[in-house]
Amino acid sequence: MTTSPPPTATSLPSKDLSLTPFVQAMLWKTLQSEPSTAFLRVHPAVSHVLWWISLALTVIVSITYLLKVVFYFEAVRREFHHPVRVNFFFAPWITCLFLVKGVPHPVWEIHHVVWYLLMAPIFWLDIKIYGQWMSSGERRLSKVANPSNHLAIVGNFVGALLGARMGLRELPIFFFAVGFAHYVVLFVTLYQRLPTNMQLPKDLHPVFFLFVAAPSVASMAWTRISGEFNDGAKLLYYVSLFLYVSLVVRVNLFWGFRFSLAWWAYTFPMTSVALATVLYASEVDNLVTRAMALGLSGIATMTIIVVLAATMYHAFVRGDLFPNDVSITITKQRPKFSKILAHLQTCGSDVKELVVSIPNFNSNSKQGAYSDDSDSNARMNN
Question: What is the CATH number of the domain that holds 25?
Answer without folding.
Answer: 1.50.10.150
